[in-house]
């Protein structure tokens, strides 16, 4: 039986963008299945975990975040705009779209549209809070245009809320977070540990 990794994230997180392709490769190499779990981090999890929206963090923390983003962008050879045109940006609609794709097309398709959404924010200067942009991303990924309308259905909102509650129950407090074998790993800089965990379970 393959190992399952719970993959918690928000679509506007630069750290999720930086780790996404590497995580997908690690999971594939280990033969692990992935539960793709967009969550409401700022609205539901930060208030109970002590997290703060970016704009409310101390200037020193905000400055160091930019330094670290540039370091990881360089190290991973991953292009990244430190000050993208559409950020901060609401991520709920994009999250619900990922949920709808996962429900109808499976985890691999959800990972694909997720990657397109992350890149849209951090590389391609596109507004993921715009329904037209989300429709374009679906088309570019070869996915059904119906997913956008389906993303507004009650079942999708219920799944999004369930994902968030699952994250709270797992002790998640930041994005991206990965849970494998009951163990929580926070941040794309912990993917080496995720890889070792999956290799040990293989």
Name its key features:
202 residues, 10% strand, four-stranded mixed beta sheet, alpha+beta, 9 helices, single chain, 4 strands
In short:
This protein has 202 residues and is α+β, with helices and mostly antiparallel strands.
How is this fold's topology laid out?
Blueprint: E1 4-9, H1 14-30, E2 33-38, H2 41-49, H3 59-76, H4 92-105, H5 107-122, H6 131-140, H7 146-150, H8 154-170, E3 177-180, E4 183-186, H9 191-201
Parallel strand pairs: 1-2
Antiparallel strand pairs: 1-3, 3-4
Helix pairs in contact: 1-5, 1-9, 4-5, 4-8
Span between termini: 9 Å
Q: Strand pairing plus helix content: what structural class?
A: alpha+beta
What does the radius of gyration come to? Answer: 16 Å
Strand order of the largest sheet: 2-1-3-4
Helix content: 55-70%
Count of DSSP H/I helices? 9
Query: How would a crystallographer describe the biggest sheet?
Result: 4 strands, mixed
Compressed to H and E, one letter per element, the order equals EHEHHHHHHHEEH
Characterize the structure shown:
The protein is globular. The chain has a 4-stranded mixed beta sheet, sandwiched between helices. The protein is built from 9 helices and 4 strands. 58% of the residues lie in helices and 10% in strands. α1 (14-30) runs antiparallel to α5, α1 (14-30) runs parallel beside α9 and α4 packs antiparallel against α5. α1 links the parallel β1 (4-9) and β2. The chain is an alpha+beta fold and 202 residues long. The chain has helices spanning 14-30, 41-49, 59-76, 92-105, 107-122, 131-140, 146-150, 154-170, 191-201, and strands at 4-9, 33-38, 177-180, 183-186.
């Amino acid at each position: 039986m393959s190992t399952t990794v719970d993959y918690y994230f928000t679509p506007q997180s630069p750290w999720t963008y930086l780790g996404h392709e590497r995580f997908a490769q690690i999971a594939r190499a280990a033969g692990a299945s992935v539960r793709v779990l967009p969550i409401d981090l700022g609205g539901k999890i930060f208030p109970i975990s002590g997290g703060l929206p970016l704009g409310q963090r101390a200037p020193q923390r905000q400055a160091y975040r930019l330094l670290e983003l540039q370091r990881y962008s360089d190290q991973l050879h991953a292009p990244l705009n430190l000050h993208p045109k559409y950020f901060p940006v609401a991520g709920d609609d994009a999250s619900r779209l990922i949920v709808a794709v996962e429900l109808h097309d499976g985890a691999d398709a959800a990972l694909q549209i997720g990657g397109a959404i992350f890149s849209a924010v951090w590389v391609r200067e596109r507004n993921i809070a715009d329904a037209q942009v989300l429709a374009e991303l679906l088309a570019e990924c070869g996915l059904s245009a119906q997913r956008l309308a389906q993303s507004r259905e009650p079942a999708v909102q219920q799944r999004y809320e369930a994902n968030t509650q699952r994250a709270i129950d797992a002790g998640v407090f930041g994005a991206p977070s990965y849970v494998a074998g009951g163990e929580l790993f926070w941040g794309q800089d912990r993917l080496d540990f995720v890889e070792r965990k999956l290799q040990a379970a293989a």
